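Q: Can I see a sequence and its folded structure?
A: Here is a first one.
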Amino acid sequence: MAFKGAKDLTKGDELKTVVLFAIPLFLSNLLQQAYNLTDITIIGNALGDDALTAIGTVSIIYDLFMSLTFGMSNGFAIVVSKYFGMNDEKKIRQVVANTALLSVIWSVAMTLSGTLLLRPIMRLLGTPADVFEIGYSYAIIMLGFIIFSFAYNIFSALLRAIGNSTAPFFFLLISVVSNIFIDILFVVVLGMGLPGAAIATIMAQTLSAVVSLIYIWKKVPVLHFGKEDIKPNKNMILELTSAGISFALMYAVVNFGTMILQSAINSLGNITIAAHTTARKISSLCMMTVGTLANSMATFTGQNHGAGRYDRIRTALRKVLFFDFGVATFMILLIYVFGELFVELISGSTNPDLIDTATFYLKFDLPFYYVLAILLIVRCTLQGLGSKITPIVASIMELGLKLLTAFVLVRLFGYLGIAMCEPIIWTVCAVYILIMFYNNRHIKALKVTDRTSS
């Protein structure tokens, strides 16, 4: 059965299907990175260093709550993709209706907890007194209207779940372009300060959410549901909740570990902090390709899991891994040849210590991208198969290793300990994920089928 506005990922060449699905996701990530740099530039030039410091002090808090909402939407989408793969229109409508119900409940919970806990968390993190109130004025708006961010994320996640990754890219483009113009109007022209920047972001996200809803209403009937579908389904709610919380906790644990690791980096001096910040910006761009293909595998696996096409999952896993190894090789060569030039361009610095430190980090970490590719792609495949505990355990392992780095490796090896952190995490977690993958009941079932048919 063909559904309007959707793409069936259970047919066609596996690698081609995953790559074509991944391209709009990659462009979306690239667009988001470009916007982040533009947003900081506007605020920094218009409001000065205190505004940037204020955003820096509260962004960790906002990012934590956003990771919880983003994780929930991704978890919901995996379940929707499975039911879509089953090709059962009635069940698709029911799971979308239950997703909508849980989304409203979750967004209200995030709004209440975020606004009530903001001041206590800021005090706990030791937010400087001179930027406390200005940081609070920004974050309270962002958290108070987090429902609009969640709305955009859930609409985009639902579209990706049914194989449509192109429309969410254009919705993000609308959000980014409108955000830049409203930022300039509120911050530069009207002088509304950081609250103006927060309002601009909320307005842009609201616009994107409304456009997404209109598109779904007019173009994607498979995501529509009626009154008869709104009735809570206990089994579906349990499945959606467990999948959503699995993703949300995974992202939250990773964010918490990053906060701890940053405290260790802060102890190494301003040049090292600046060098690491620069290196991370570059490595984030390099990781984007590996991560995008992995996220695409989650949706691909979800649909094929619903359709019972485990043969396609195994074939895609093999092909995508080899494809990603090629991408990793290209990234490694690029950094080893042009790494210093990239550091100079991104940082705008001519300090040889900063350039050498940032380049060292990149050249140390990038050869481990082969391991990272295995970790991310296999983990996302497991999530697409409905695995909930394994990703959380891997994230807890990551947290433990970041604690080890912050309190042991940095003291023993200095910045080398920071550079060693992620390669160690990737290697340990990849081994664990591979063990869990080959013990997954669906993979075992397929091996039995293969032996029987042969």
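Q: Show me another, different protein.
A: A second, unrelated one:
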Amino acid sequence: MLRQEFDHLKKLCRIDCSAEEEAEVLNSLQKVIAYFEEIKAVDTEGVQSCNYVLQAMLKNQMRPDQCTDVLSRDRFLGNTSDQIGGMVRVPPVLKE
């Protein structure tokens, strides 16, 4: 059954893979399915559902802003490999 589902998914996703890759994927899927079967065996009767595992971490952890000395332009540009007109020169990102 797993093989048929995998073949169907390959067709839907237009995935082309070798026989070795197929065997590896099928082996991995069988391990995942076996693990899910183990999880199904756990008794969860009476356990309240949980939407957020780390509920306490949902609030923003922010530190207060602190004003410090700013690096001078000359010192900053002294650390760059290339500069032009007081600005850092970087390789072009967009090409025509």
